[in-house]
Amino acid sequence: MKVFIGPNEVANIGAILASALKERGIRVTVVAHKTSPLRAGMGYDMVLDFQRSSKLRGILRYLYCFVKYFPKHNAFIFLSGQSLLPYNLDLPILKLFRKKTIMWFVGSDIRHYESLAAAAKKAGVKYYMSEEKLRKQREAGPKGLKQRKRVIRMVERYVDYILSSPSYSQLLTREYCRIYAPLDTCNIGYRNVPNSRPIVVHAPSKPENKGTSYISEAVERLKREGYDFEFHLFTNTSNIKVRETLSDADIAVDQLFATVPGMFALESMAAGCAVLGGNVPEFSGFPRELPIIHTDPDNIYRNLKMLLENPELRRELGDKSRRYVEKYHDYRKIADDIVKLITEN
């Protein structure tokens, strides 16, 4: 077996999964579509770096990648709704040659605000998408919805397995598999000893989509009220640096416009932090034991204040968090689930 993973990379899922598969003795090629400080320390066989190219050169890079890797691999794992050729035109070719294929949807690639809004309203969820994302989807209008459906139907027709999550799968018509994001807990130091001066960390990939302005406002208000703590805001920072800080931290604030944890939340949990972020089990399908305090723009001040005042609660949540990610997100377990899919039939 030789597995290809890429070309889109989201939250380092491809690189982490590749590492686990290699530990299983499986030959893997992992490709990323662009460079980023968030991917520091992750090993890629190729980085297409198409954002520095013209559209035509970008397409040629993908075509070169397909020609190079198609004959050498018998299983392909694609992320975020995109394969190697424009419009996913390689999916029929891969199916014709009986290559095993998996498409791993991660959220924004198939999420549509109208269908999501209806599901969120039914579940009583007020904040489910940032204002910026809502604006862009409204601007895309019916054309944007039609394009998403076209991608989804192409995938549903030709790939062997679809990986997705209940919180953003409203447009899917085919059965999908639920596999949690992989996390290498061995590379994240776990301390979980409350600091006398608490350390709070927030590391948004896109501040406008994560509620960073609300978080900063809550931090400033608490400091004005006399609460003594350190606040670290990381943007466009090496993932290695962020993980090191998390290992010494007490509290991590993830995204406020969400019902599920992002990769930063999972890394924070592995480091033993108490986490504020998205957690609506009845909407997301995540286990109810997920120890994240659900936090949105309305309660970020109150929840952060509560954790600052309760070191024992921080320690308790940190302990539960580490055990949770080891149970559900261990990259070796995720790799075993993927191998089962690839080797079936």
In short, what is this structure?
By secondary structure, the chain is α/β, with parallel strands linked by helices. Helix content is 44%, strand content 12%. It is built from 13 helices and eleven strands.
Total discrete domains: 2
Main sheet attributes: strand count, strand direction, barrel closure: 6 strands, parallel
Poorly predicted tracts of residues: none
Structure class: alpha/beta
Structure description:
By secondary structure, this protein is an alpha/beta fold. The chain has 13 helices and 11 strands. The chain folds into 2 domains: 2-182 and 330-343, Rossmann fold (3-Layer(aba) Sandwich), CATH 3.40.50; 185-328, Glycogen Phosphorylase B (Rossmann fold, 3-Layer(aba) Sandwich), CATH 3.40.50.2000. The strands form 2 sheets. A 6-stranded parallel beta sheet has the order 3-2-1-4-5-6, sandwiched between helices. A 5-stranded parallel beta sheet has the order 8-7-9-10-11, with helices on both faces.
